[in-house]
Amino acid sequence: MNRRTHWLPTLTLLLGAVYCLIPVMWVVMAATKSRGELFSTFTFLPGTGLWANLAELTAYRDGAFWRWMLNSALYAGVGAVLSAAVSAVSGYALAKFAFRGRGLIFTVILTGVLMPPITLAVPQYLLLAKAGLAGSYWSVLLPSVLSPYGIYLARVYAQAAVPDEVLEAARVDGARELRLFTSIAWPMMLPGLVTIFLFQFVAIWNNFLLPYVMLSDHETFPVTVGLFTLLQQGSSRPALYTLVITGALLSIIPLIALFLGLQRYWRVDLLSGVVKS
Q1: Among 13, 28, 273, 276, which is least packed by CB within 10 angstroms?
Q2: Neighbour-count burial of 262, counting CB atoms closer than 10 A to its CB (0-12 exposed, 13-18 middle, 19+ buried)
Q3: DSSP letter string over 66-122?
């Protein structure tokens, strides 16, 4: 690369980072402003109303916001764990077992990756309503368990990270298939499974359309739908806008904490898990 232009990639990345961070910075600053400060000035300087906003948000409908946060944690946590487990088993089977129809199954999974989730929301609602599950926690959890993208990633990762020679050597030693998966393949695939878990957790936590279609009781709303109901009421009660902004700030804190807490699992040495086991 020409020395005169070697700084262009760095500049481009910095501009992209600024573009992504400006809305987050505005939310952080806006959450600290009182109602009067929020509507009278547009600055990135902190305000004086953060604690009042937090107290008012906590008191809204006897703590409805924190119920929404717990619901989101339930949907995202349980859904992401189950999705990562299903993706691990499915991806490993597609990568390491030769059976009739494997190529067709993988093609169908790729089709699911390319299909927008919005096209599945109404059919899923009709199916779950027929089963009597619409409006319950299961109506949001069950569709989140199966992730075509997670299965695709697990298949690619298992094919690259789990050597066939190691599996064959274990089979010669008398290890059964379940033992192969739990003691050899699973530790090797762990960094990839953590990535799948994070992707699915963020996707479920930020999901709006599916719970909006499935749920009708605000007691079961996740934080995305709950804040949307607040935003709708804000058109007639502008005072609620401060609660929406404060709630939006609080809703991203678990995602940041999760990424910081799990990044240690992203290891380069893919075999370290097996060596330790």
Answers
A1: 276
A2: middle
A3: HHHHHHHHHHHHHHHHHHHHHHHHHHHHHHH---TTHHHHHHHHHHHHHS-THHHHH
What pTM did the predictor assign?
0.86
Q: What is the dihedral of CA 32, 207, 263, 152, to 10 degrees?
A: -160
- In angstroms, the CA 180 to CA 167 distance is 7
Q: Which residues lie below 8 Å from residue 158, measured CB to CB, with a gap of 6+?
A: 88, 91, 92, 94, 95, 96, 185, 189, 192
Residue type, 140: V
Residue type, 262: L
Q: Which residue has the tokens 């501009």?
A: 15
84-125 pLDDT, tens digit each: 999 999 999 999 988 888 889 988 888 888 888 788 888 899
